């Protein structure tokens, strides 16, 4: 992928057909435009992992964000907060946690706040953001990092087209089914690189006929089930 540029924008109107009648997508990285196709290595890697998914993994991937929203809704009802607040707390605590631990720590935080206490087992890095969210600020305004903000939006609105690209998603795009690269969900990406990977997942989703969120979630659970990712179930 292009390594330069801190900003990127998509040009859906430039979508076309390649020689195999598959969609293409143009992404702008800095001042340069790059046209993605099914043969773009990152797109091909994402599709390779997607096509490895079994039926159970495809069902789980398609439902993943709806089920995350349901968890946030359940917490909101149980502890007397809004779904935006509970979604925000889950997202704020997500960096470097497996999903099960993420949910457990979020509930501990919310339970503590409902009792008039503080934090529970919340990670120090998430405290300032959580305090602002619980004091009534819009989580979308608080969670400004590209990955955490996108994760919040996916939980709060599973119909969004905004994608969460963490280190695992990047590793899938970079390496496909090869067991190399990072083993955690952490990865530094410039805004331009992040947008590039989002474009790769978006195009892969169009080719496969699923939503971008379903593509991202399905490849993630498949990657997890291949045991390329440890401690995330």
**Which whole number gives the mean pLDDT?**
85
Structural class: mainly alpha
Please tally the β strands and state the result: 3
Oligomer: single chain
Identify the strand order in the major beta sheet. 1-2-3
Shape: globular
Query: Secondary-structure element sequence?
Result: EEEHHHHHHHHHH
What percent of residues are in strands?
Answer: 5-15%
Q: Unreliable stretches, pLDDT < 50, 5 or more residues? A: 2-19
Number of domains: 2
Number of helices: 10
- Percent of residues in helices comes to 55-70%
Kindly report how far apart the N and C termini lie.
30 Å
* CA-based gyration radius: 18 Å
* Biggest beta sheet attributes: 3 strands, antiparallel
Architecture blueprint of SSEs:
Elements: E1 8-11, E2 25-29, E3 32-36, H1 41-52, H2 55-79, H3 83-92, H4 99-114, H5 124-134, H6 139-142, H7 146-156, H8 167-175, H9 191-208, H10 212-225
Antiparallel strand pairs: 1-2, 2-3
Helix pairs in contact: 1-8, 1-9, 1-10, 2-3, 2-10, 3-4, 3-5, 3-7, 9-10
Features:
3-stranded antiparallel beta sheet; mainly alpha; 233 residues
Description:
This protein has 233 residues and is mainly α. It contains ten helices and three strands. Strand 2 (25-29) and strand 3 (32-36) form a beta hairpin. The radius of gyration is 18 Å and the shape is globular. The two termini are 30 Å apart.
Short description:
By secondary structure, this protein is mainly α. It contains 10 helices and 3 strands. It is globular.
